[in-house]
Amino acid sequence: MKKLGFLFLLLIATHCIIAQGFFDGNDIISKSYAQRWELDSIYKKGTFRLVSYRSIYVTPARWSSSPNEKPQSENPNNSATKSLDYDIVEVKFQISLKTKVLQSIFFGKGDLWVGYTQVAHWQLYNDPLSRPFREINYEPELIFKYPLHIKLFDGEFKSVGVSFTHQSNGRELPYSRSWNRVIFDLSYEIDSWIVSARPWIRLSDGNRDDNPAITDYIGDGEVNVSYTYDRHQFYTVITHPFNRWEGGSVQLNYIFPIKGHLRGHMQAFTGYGETLIDYNHNQTTIGIGVSFANW
Question: How far apart (Å, rounded) are the C-alpha atoms in residues 221 and 244?
């Protein structure tokens, strides 16, 4: 079984390397924000062209300070009644793609995109539990981007946008978790820095709510900050609730060149909500692996 697991990881890595050639090769490494979202007419490349969205990476070793062995929820139907003996080290990988479905709408400048991100946490080294996938989060999005050219200091506001996002783990009770959001986005670029403010509004799930207090822990918005130097990239994702001091999270990432398109990826996380099942669980994690496409 262990050999099959490593073969599966190798298959993912090979697929990403092949896909990278399809997704413009070196452009993945050094695209500006305007290029990534095709904000200006010189970058427009038409519709239904599959490109990378968020980072695509494989982390064969992710360590947790406190694995969530008995997930709980404010809804008693979504609270586990027994603990599972999870390993503190597991595999994590993320696949994230987008495609433009409508171009040059809304005064001839806006674009409508469809995005999809999948993040998996796999207990590959946990033989007593038969090496299960501990958690898989699925996140389809409908994203509208409108270009801006508003100068401020030495930088420029690049875009404003709004998206509808569904995120779920596709599991049955008591482990089911999901939520829907409308996310607003304002992005600013200065030199090699990109800063995006992304507040969101959670949409009601009615009487069936897997995670009623999720915004108290994960938060009501996030700030993304990235910096690129040569072929090195640093990016941070910070979340926090608006209504209290406690809660939120910080994720730090460092991507560095190894050889050719292959790059190393170091990731550290602390706080709540690394995955949906962990939305109200506080932990610190550290992982190292390889990356195939930038944030």
Answer: 13
Of the candidates 52, 149, 166, 240, the residue annotated as catalytic is 166
Domain that holds residue 88: 2-293
Q: What is the pLDDT of residue 17?
A: 43
Within 10 A of 43 (CB to CB), how many other CB atoms are there? 14
- 166 is annotated as an active-site residue: yes
Question: First CA to last CA across the chain, in angstroms?
Answer: 32
149 as an active site residue: the answer is no
Helices (H), 49-152: 106-109
Residue from 41, 52, 168, 232 carrying the catalytic annotation = 168
Q: How far is CA 254 from CA 49, 103, 233, 264, 295, in A?
A: 28, 33, 6, 8, 11
Which pLDDT score is estimated for 9? 47
CATH number of the domain to which 216 belongs: 2.40.230.10
Tokens read off for 257: 């060149």
What pTM, to 2 d.p., does this model score? 0.89
